[in-house]
Amino acid sequence: MRKSFSLVELVFVIVIIGALAGLATTWLFETRMDSQVATLKSDVATLLTQVPAEIVAGNIDVDTAAPEGFSTWGEWLMYVGALDKARWKSTENGVVAISYVNNNNNSNQVLCDGEYLYIDLIDGVLHFIPSNINANASNFCKIFRNSYNQNSETKINLKSSNAMQY
């Protein structure tokens, strides 16, 4: 009566388990990146709704310096959108997404730079222009950019008329 597996059977099982693990790792990595892009898209949607509401509620004039307590409009956008500093970085008048690239087991920050989510202080307009995301910065930035329709752009006028001022 046989009480153990042969060496060939064990090797065959190990090869199958290894192949399945390789496929699962690839699938999990892609799923993780998709969820990170979905989080960024949610952050963008939040900003596009929260910023106009905060401008009106606070009677904020976008022609001037950043609101009191903030050194730049980018910092203010981070605050208003409750953006995670691990995912976003403030610029002078806007924000840019952060990508993480693994090189030799080290994770390095890469900015998905470009002027794509910012306040134009001259016109008083909040711009979101996904086509301005630098897709060459990393594969993540490319996926983030391509997650939006080509030539899609959002402009929201933030200037209030004299009739709205309190």
- The total strand number stands at 6
Helix content: 40-55%
Helix count, per DSSP? 3
The shape is elongated
Radius of gyration using CA atoms only: 23 Å
Strand order of the largest sheet: 1-2-3
**Contiguous uncertain segments of 5+ residues:** 162-166
Order of H and E elements: HHEEEEEHE
Look at the structure and give the mean pLDDT: 86
What's a concise summary of this model?
The chain has helices at 7-58, 73-80, 139-146, and strands at residues 88-90, 95-103, 106-112, 117-120, 125-128, 154-157.
Characterization of the model:
By secondary structure, the chain is of the alpha+beta class. It has one domain (about 5-165). The chain has three helices and six strands. The chain has helices at about 5-60, 75-80, 140-145; strands spanning about 90, 95-105, 105-110, 115-120, 125-130, 155. The strands form two sheets. The protein has a three-stranded antiparallel sheet with strand order 1-2-3. It has a three-stranded antiparallel sheet with strand order 4-5-6, with helices on one face. A hairpin with a 4-residue loop joins β4 and β5.
